[in-house]
Amino acid sequence: MAAPRRSFSCESATQTLEWMNAIAVFLRPFKPLLDAHVVNFFKDRLWEMVDEQWMECLRKESVENLLKLPSGFVQDYWPHSLQEFICTLRSLVFAREPKLSHPFLCNLHVASLGSVLTQGMSLKKKHEVEILAAVISKVASGSGAQTIIDVGSGQGYLAQALSFEYQLSVTAIDASLHHATVTNARAERIKKHYAAKIAGSQHLKVPRTVTCHVLSSDILTALSTVSLHEENVEQSTDTNNSLENDVLENLKSHIGKASYLYNNRKIGPPLVLAGLHACGDLSVNMLRTFVDCEQVKAVVGVGCCYNLLSEDHAEKTNTPCGFPMSRAAKLSGLTLGKNAHDLACQSAERWRSLTKDDALQNFDVHTFRAAFQMVLDKYFPDVLTSSPSIGRKGKALRRQRMRQVIESKLGTKGCNTVPFFTFKQQCKSAAGSLTMKTDELEVVDGCYSNMALRVDACTTLEELPQSSSSSDVRCLETTVEKTDNYLLFKEFSMSGLSRLGCGPSEDINLLEIWKEAQPFAI
User: Fold this and answer.
1) Where is the Methyltransferase domain (predicted)?
2) What residues have CB less than 8 Å from 318, skipping those under 6 apart?
């Protein structure tokens, strides 16, 4: 077993810098893999960038063990270099388990929000809003702030909890005019409920809404500096161009006033910046505003969509990018890129919690998509230049698998035909509703003919007879079509070509491509 690695910490600036540099040094040799995309696995022969011993070892591993890899799982019999790699990686990652032992969170009172405030929220959203609203309220109290700026407020769930439940003054900022309209309408309904419960309803605090793209910390600083006296920048649901121009002009006047106050250091009352799921650069702009704006006394944020962070080397703009944010990070010379950002957002816990069947479905989808990339590269190279998107095919694959399970339960595995109307009724009772394409079923004399007979799941293409004549190739393809994965890949490819507007052609040899990809399928 590889020796345990040292632990890193962010308790001081020196320790944080040491951790950042260690990550940069670790990632640099693997930059070609970080820049690669899984869809190009076969086309670019990405496996050749991986140690041969690692590949040979991991190809023999069980699905259950592979799912534990992102969580730092190792086996004693694995190559020493692979164990070293995983243990070093494990020492560099941030702790995933939440630490709620901070003294600030002691005796935190979390108000249970009623059905009126939580209308439209999922249970997850309700949990998040309740906890974060309680934390923000305590932070505001400790910093002497009575005003909260909710950045990326969405439909106003957090803003309304802070206003109505904690009686804080809230300005909700979101880029969507529709969200502002929904927030205002929802707040009016909630206000009526609270007005009936509380005497002196005129004192109820209602969130103000601002529709604005927070493209930089300068804009957020300006909005944070001024106290917006108007109830709303815009409440109308009309979205024609003239109205949008009026909104922009109105907003410019607010920003201009804010900039004047800020430049002359006429700082207003203290406030707290808050954000629940502040997307991409929004979280970065909140932090920069906290540093730049004296009025902002605290920032409470839960970021999301880190893959959408802009990056210096990829963006051609004068606006500061989201990554790297600090001077120290820039000095490390580390660059990531879009594919690395997407990879970093993969959840190790989610992979670890998958069942074997769910994992196999995920692996199949990745295999099919990467093999389909070879189809495009060979037969439609011009399409590849436009970075084609063929949609999410995972659900279609799951429906295909469900159909096979239902067929098996109905006895079609041992018998080719069942009455079609009976099959249809049984499908409805077994799966609620199941849609099948007409070319997947054949009705003969009122009976359903199963066109996709299954063969032994362990059968590989190498075990099938090899042939060279055109008639033998057609016969081989007919045999191979009886294997689940080739049939699914063929359907996946036809669907993808249709989505891209590329008509099927007799020249496309899917069998040849699948034979190249099949050894890598699990």
Assistant:
1) 124-311
2) none
Q: Which two tokens stand for residue 68?
A: 């534990």
Residues of the chain with pLDDT below 50 are: 201, 227-248, 251-252, 255, 261, 265, 412-482
CB 323 within 8 A of CB 311: yes
> What's the pLDDT score for residue 345?
84
Closest CA to 390 of 128, 39, 6: 39
Kindly state the DSSP code that residue 216 receives in the 8-state scheme: S
Query: What is the DSSP track for 510-522?
Result: HHHHHHHHGGG--
pLDDT at 213: 76
Across the strands, what pairs with 247?
A: none
What does the pLDDT read at residue 396?
59
**CB-based burial of residue 276 (10 Å sphere; 0-12 exposed, 13-18 middle, 19+ buried)?**
buried
What pLDDT sits at residue 263? 52
Element of type H or E holding 297: strand 296-304
Question: What does 229-249 look like in DSSP terms, one character per residue?
Answer: -SSBS-------HHHHHHHHH
Contacts of 329 (CB under 8 A, 6+ apart): 20, 323
Residue holding tokens 């077994």? 430
Phi, psi of 346 (to 5 degrees): -70, 140
* Residue 510 pLDDT: 93
- In three-state secondary structure terms, 148 is strand
Query: pTM for the full model?
Result: 0.70
